[in-house]
Amino acid sequence: MIDPYFQKRLWNWSRAIRSYPNTGSNVISPTAQAMEALVLKNGVPNDDIGLASVGKERSIPIDLIDADLLSRAYASRHLCEKAKLLLRLKYGQCLSDATCARKLCLGERLFRDIHEAVCEKFRLTVETYYDPR
Known about the structure:
Blueprint: H1 4-19, H2 29-42, E1 51-53, E2 61-63, H3 64-75, H4 81-92, H5 97-103, H6 108-130
Antiparallel strand pairs: 1-2
Helix pairs in contact: 1-3, 2-3, 3-6, 5-6
């Protein structure tokens, strides 16, 4: 089972990378550009540092700093290309488990098992190398 706290971080990362147009091949660029645009446009209020919202909704903020940490971990050498592909399909394109399984030529149950294992490896990578201590 995927750690519930890390699952929330994954969905925050998903929202961050899908909320802004991808302008380059670097996974970090949409998040970094969004942060820069917010600072240049509005400045950063003291109580909202690191947070932005999707569209007009201020009720569900996106933690761009945490999303950037996950993006850096994703771009690192610690995950194999197949794991990155699975994460890209599930969280970057926000596809269903069945669709991801089809695209990866896996059964749905096998996909879920592999998804859990990849998320656990990703969590350990993030916590070991990227989370502030």
